[in-house]
Amino acid sequence: MRKKRTNGHTQMYVGQKFPLTIKRLGINGEGIGYYKRKIVFVPQALPGEIVTAKVTQVKKNYAQAQVNRIRQASPDRVTPRDNYDVGGIELAHLAYPAQLQFKRDVIKQALAKFKPRAYEEYDIRPTLGMDEPYYYRNKAQFQVRRDANGQVVAGLYRPNSHQLVDLPTFSTQRPLTMKIIRTVCSIIQSLGMSTYNEKTNKGAVKTIVVRESFATGQAQLVLVTNTKELPQREQFVAQVQSRLPEVVSLMHNINPGRTSLVWGEETKHLWGQEYITEKLGQITFRLSARAFFQLNPAQTKVLYDEVKKALELAPNETLIDAYCGVGTIGLYVAQDAKEVRGMDIIPEAIADARVNARLSGLSNVQYEVGGAEKWIPQWNRLGFVPDALVVDPPRTGLDQQLIETIIKYRPRKFVYVSCNPSTLARDLVQLTKVYDVEYIQSVDMFPQTARCEAVVKFSLRG
Question: CA 208, CA 220: separation in Å to the nearest integer?
Fold first, then answer.
C-alpha cells in the first residue's frame, strides 16, 4: 500500500485519484481545484470542468495532479493541433477567444496579489489577439539527439526533464523553420555526424537554431556543438547549399560540456552572410546569430503600435528607450520624436542597434552601453532631460536602481512594456507612488501559450 502523507487534516498521496472541480486557471495555464481545502494544480484542465485527478506530487501547501479522465468538459475545450508533452503549447486545448480572456485575467490576478495603488480601478483592456494564432514563431531552437534506433531527432524537452520529444511538426512554428530542421537532421544522419550524448558528455551536435526573416523569406542556420570543430564541415556546408536554398547565413556556435545554456561564447562563420535582415514597418534590423529579436514579428508591430499610441510623442519631444536591445522600440518610434537615446548592458546589442539605425536612415538616435540608472542621471547633468521614457525589461522586471531613478527624475510620459504580469504588478507598487496607471493594454504575442505581454501607460501625478 502507498504511504500517505498527512498535512494537518488533509491526507493525500501520489497515485491517489479523486473527482475535482476546476475553479480557474493559474498563471502558467494550469487548472486549479481544491481537495479538502488543499490547492491542486492540474495541467490541461479547464475552468468549469469536472475531472478525475491523479496525484503526481504532494507538497505541504499544494499538490500536483494530472487529468485521468474528463467527467464534464468545458465548452471552451478544443482538440489541440499538436499532442506533444512539451512547453510552448500549454493552452492549445483552450479555444482562442478564451485564451485571450485568460491573458487579461492573469494581469488581474497579479494585480490582486501585489495590490498596487488603486489597482481595482485600472482600465485593463481586452487582449489584442491574432487573426491566425498559429505558425507565427520565426525562430526554432531544438535540441538534437539520437533515438533508441540511432535516428537523429530534434525537438524540445518534456517539462521539468531532459527527456527529448521529437517534433516532426509544431503548429506554432513557421513552416520554413520546421522544414530546415527536418532537413538538417537528415543531413546529419546521412553524413554520420556525431550528436551530443548528455550522459557521456561526448558527441558533437547539440542544438539546431533556425531564424526566418518575415521580410525576405530567408533564414539563418546555426549549429551549436559540444566540440570546437564541426564534423564533416565541408560536406555539411555543401549539403545545406544544395538542399536549403532559403538558408543565406550558416554559423557555428561552440558550447562545450553539460550546461543549461543554449549558447556558448564563441560563434564561427561557416558560409554566406553573418546575419539576416528583418523589417518592422519601415525599420530595418540586422540580426546576428545571438541577437535578441521578438519571436512573432507580425504581432510585434501590433505591440509597438500600442507603444507608439501610448507615448503620443510630439515632433519636439525626446525619448529614452531603456533595455533597448537591438533598438527595436526606439527606432520604431524615432520618426515621431526629436531625439531618441537608448541603452543596454549588452555591448553586442548596442552595436546592432547602431547598425540598425544606420540601415534605417535615422540620424536622431544615440545608443550607449550601460544601465539606464547610470545614463539617465548622467544625461540629466549634461542637460538632456527626456520628455518620455519607455522600458521593456526582461521577465525579471525592472532593476531596483532603475525604479529609484525613475521615481527621482519622473519623466512626464512613461510607458512600460511587460512580458511578465507578476513582476509588472510588483514594480507597480513602487511606481504608483508618483504615477497613475491610465490603462493596461494586453497583447497576445504567443498564442497557445500562457505567456502574455502588456503595455502600461502612466500619467505623472501632480
Answer: 11
3-state helix, strand, coil in the chain (%, to 5): 25, 35, 40
Q: DSSP of 87-116, one letter per residue? A: TT-TTTTB-HHHHHHHHHHHHHHHHHHH--
How far apart are the C-alpha atoms of 285 and 277, rounded to whole Å? 5
3-state secondary structure of 460: strand
Residue 344 labelled as part of a binding site: yes
Longest Cα pair distance anywhere in the chain, in angstroms? 76
Q: What is the pLDDT of residues 388-444, one digit of tens each?
A: 999 999 999 999 999 999 999 999 999 999 999 999 999 999 999 999 999 999 999
DSSP notation for 102-155:
HHHHHHHHHHHHH--TTGGG--EEEEE--SS-SS-B-EEEEEEEE-TTS-EEEE
Q: Which residue has the cell 519623466?
A: 411
Where residue 214 falls (left for φ over 0; alpha for ψ -120 to 50; beta otherwise) is alpha
| Model pLDDT for residues 276-290, shown as the tens digit of each residue | 999 999 999 999 999
* pTM > 0.70: yes or no: yes
DSSP string for residues in 186-254: HHHHHHT--B-BTTTTB-SEEEEEEEE-TTT--EEEEEEESSSS-TTHHHHHHHHHHH-TTEEEEEEEE
Question: What Rg do the C-alpha atoms of the chain give, in angstroms?
Answer: 24
Q: Which domains does the chain show, CATH number per domain?
A: 5-72 (2.40.50.140), 100-131+296-460 (3.40.50.150), 139-280 (2.40.50.1070)
Using alpha carbons, list the distances in angstroms from residue 336 to 96, 173, 298, 329.
34, 33, 21, 12
Q: How far apart are CA 423 and CA 113, in angstroms?
A: 11
| Contact in structure between 293 and 283 (CB atoms under 8 Å) | no
The strands making up 31-35's β-sheet, listed across from edge to edge, are 17-21, 50-58, 62-72, 38-42, 31-35, 24-25
Instruction: Please check if 323 is assigned to a binding site.
Output: yes
- CA end-to-end span of the chain, whole Å? 67
Nearest to 269 by CA among 248, 291, 250: 250
HSE of 185 in the Cβ direction (CA atoms, 13 Å)?
21
**Length of the chain, please?**
462
pLDDT in tens, 30-42: 999 999 999 999 9
Query: Which residue shows C-alpha cell 564534423?
Result: 231
Query: What are the angstrom distances between the C-alpha of 435 and each of 56, 104, 318, 427?
Result: 45, 22, 19, 12
Q: In the sheet that 266-272 helps form, which strands lie side by side, from edge to edge?
A: 164-166, 152-157, 139-146, 205-212, 219-225, 247-254, 266-272
Active site annotation includes 419: yes
